[in-house]
Amino acid sequence: MDLLRFATAGSVDDGKSTLIGRLLYDSKSIFEDQLAAVEATSAARGDDYTDLALLTDGLRAEREQGITIDVAYRYFATPRRKFIIADTPGHIQYTRNMVTGASTADLALILVDARKGLVEQSRRHAFLCSLLRVPHMVLCVNKMDLVDWSEEVFEKISAEFRAFAAKLDVPDLAIIPISALKGDNIVERSQNMPWYEGTSLLHHLEHVHIGSDRNLVDARFPVQHVIRPQSNADDRRDYRGYAGQVASGVLKPGDEVMVLPSGFTSRIAGIDTADGPVAEAYPPMSVTVRLEDEIDISRGDMFCRPNNKPQVSQDVEAMVCWMDESVPLTPGRKYTIKHTTRSARAVVKNLHYRLDINTLHRDEGASSLGLNEIGRVRLRTTVPLLHDEYRRNRATGGFIIIDEATNKTAGAAIIV
Amino acid sequence: MTEFPTQSVGYAVSHLDALEAEAIFVFREVVAECERPVLLFSGGKDSIVLLHLAQKAFWPGRIPFPLLHVDTGHNFEEVLAFRDRRAAELEAQLLVASVQEGIDSGLVAEPPSGMRNAIQTPVLLEAVEKYRFDALFGGARRDEEKARAKERVFSFRDEFGQWDPKNQRPELWSLYNARTHSGESMRVFPLSNWTELDVWHYIQRENIALPDIYFAHEREVVDRGGMLYAVHEVLPAKPGEEPFTELVRYRTVGDASCTAAVRSDARTVAEVIDEVAATRITERGATRGDDRVSEAAMEDRKREGYF
Predict the structure, then answer these.
(1) What whole-number percentage of chain B has pLDDT above 70?
(2) Residue A96 in contact with residue A371, Cβ under 8 Å?
(3) Confidence band of B29 (pLDDT split at 50, 70, 90)
């Protein structure tokens, strides 16, 4: 059984909570005591129906105000797959939460109301998912029961969305007509829409091929931690292993590797795990690599192949999504950044433009980026970043920006 | 039930392997970035799995941080014995912060209910201050409880140990921000994305030993509001309660005064997996008296600095 992480986007009005509630309920992932608690709260508030949003809205403020504040993670499994849902709220701090949820997602699920068709928010969702390079996208046209299961309505929305998605970078798109409330095309194919020839949503989630989404071509191994047991046991006295998680590519014993930024080369002597040596390491394995030669290597260095290296540069161009509500990003300001296992200080050299994510218009006169704003910047770092373009490698193409005064994670950046 | 394949084939990675790799990454990240980490170890199954993963993360080296148990004094003997044996096997340093000493010194007061869960918090925070820990590994999972579903893997605590759910650091990719000022700390949850069933499948796959109380055994219990509490030396039956012997096991193990047993005939890990897969009640809902206080009981405790 493998693991699929997906992010859901949409507001309560689109029926997102109902859809998630149904996926959890139909996969028997909602428990009786959870349901009883939600029913009791709904009844006490005088709701006409059981509000399944209460399953995910766990914080006191959310319950009191009837809003979703933060990304909630939900889990369910079928015999084929385990699923992690990053449920991102539609209203508050929308971009920040959506970007966070999408950063680790294999698939994005976007909901629209069949009666309303595409709205500004649907386009924003699609844009952010393409910016974050979520490899698979599913558009669920919901509330089909309220448009008499009309094929015409569905086709019109589909055509409009496909036209919009064509302008973005969406490698895989599925569009499914559903009724989350009635359960149509959620687990079983709907009897009400015989004109629809695709699969149900759950079937799609279970079968969408994610094995090829990983980059298995470019060997990149950021050194996370050096393991030196300093034990008196004979077999461990001289042990020196480089622990880390394979970011991309495949590593094998005997492979020639280059260590960056030094540029020294060596061969892989062995790849260890606590369960014994392995013949190959690939994402997302956490392993410990031993080299044949003694080279000075520390955290933040990266192993690659001599004929396939990342960029090594102190100047990077990036799209930044700003997440700090109190202090905007401004040119000239200094920050700490964290990229793979390497931290550096950086100064914002230039803010080229701020992007209007509704119109994709570039405002070149912008002088700062506030909360939830996206723009293109140029940064100069104190040490070289060992990076690839984000579109080629999500693991070596993204970094976070940290405010040096508050230590808050203030922004997310995608190297272009 | 359906058998879940738990081994990886080719370049495919099973969900357990992916969860394990993520947890190991988290352990190594904390050790690389924080100065004085500690692992909260109670002898409960989640902290046992946590310890197993820590061992794997630093193999062939030793676990490079101590273990801390906040001891409420209301313990299950077999769990305490297990705790000590495991720490000795790993040659790990085991620190104990005693709630009883906290009561004796006036740091905390014994609640009238006798449930010592809530008063663990000041005792924990005192230990954090005393040893100047800046990162505390905990075994909490997001599937346990709805406030936890919103908590980060690296969860920032201010100098009072408090969690502010509205002011959490965004977590993108696997780039965790562990930076703190002096006196502040991180709570780190490597099992965030695991479910109860994942934990049991992993225990089975890795052949991890657990205290016996996780498996069906006969025990003298009383029924309190539908929950079965063991008759224990510090928790005798109250007047009017009729103790009886029942075949039970524990789904969670915490302070003995607020952890209930469930009726069960599951005597092996495989039988427990079947039982957990079929159950329709969450593990905290079935076994934790302290979570029944209110809708937001866990959130309120966490804000104060609870695990």
Answers:
(1) 90
(2) yes
(3) very high
**Looking at the complex, does the CB of residue B159 fall below 8 Å from at least one CB of chain A?**
no
Is the minimum CB–CB distance between A45 and chain B shorter than 8 Å?
A: no
Mean predicted confidence (pLDDT) in B25-30:
98
Q: Which of B125, B119, B70 is nearest to B98 (CA)?
A: B70
Q: How confident is the model at residue B50 (pLDDT cuts 50, 70, 90)?
A: very high
| pLDDT higher than 70, residue A325 | yes
Cα B218 from Cα B244, distance rounded (Å):
10
Is A3 near chain B, with CB under 8 Å? yes
- Examine the domain organization and report whether A229 and A264 are in the same domain: yes
pTM of the model: 0.93
Find chain B residues with C-beta within 8 A of A84's C-beta: 193
The two three-digit tokens of residue B151, written as one number = 């908590």
User: Tokens 């031993």 correspond to what residue?
Assistant: A290
Domain final residue, candidates A278, A304, A330: A304
Q: Name the residue with higher pLDDT: B223 or A252.
A: A252
- The CA-to-CA distance between both ends of chain A, in Å, stands at 34
In chain B, what are the helix, strand and coil shares in percent, each to the nearest 5?
A: 35, 15, 45
What's the confidence (pLDDT) of residue A143? 94
Nearest C-alpha neighbor of A318 from the set A227, A385, A243: A385
Which neighbouring-strand residues pair with A12? none
CA distance linking residue A313 with residue A385, whole number of Å: 6
- Overall average pLDDT of the B248-268 stretch: 87
Whether residue A281 is found in the same domain as residue A182:
no
Residue B304 has a pLDDT of 74
B246 at interface of A, judged by CB pairs closer than 8 A: no
Coil, helix or strand at residue A126: helix
pLDDT tens track for B136-150 = 999 999 988 777 888
Residue A247 sits at the vertex; the CA angle it makes with A242 and A251, to the nearest 5 degrees, is: 60
The answer to whether residue A403 is domain-embedded is yes
Cis amide bond preceding A261, omega within 30: yes
* B98 interface with A at CB cutoff 8 Å: no
- State whether CATH 3.40.50.970 applies to domain B15-198+296-304: no
The total domain count for chain A is: 3
Which residues are A287's β-sheet partners?
Answer: A244
The whole-number pLDDT of residue A50 equals 67
Cα angle, residue A245 at apex, residues A399 and A222 outer, rounded to 5°: 55
For the sheet with B262-263, list strands across it: B227-230, B217-224, B244-249, B262-263
Residues of A in contact with B58 (CB under 8 A): 227, 243
Which residues of A, range 181-240, sit inside 8 Å of B by Cβ? 211, 214, 216, 224-225, 227-231, 236, 239
The pLDDT tens digits for B119-142 are 899 999 999 999 999 999 999 999
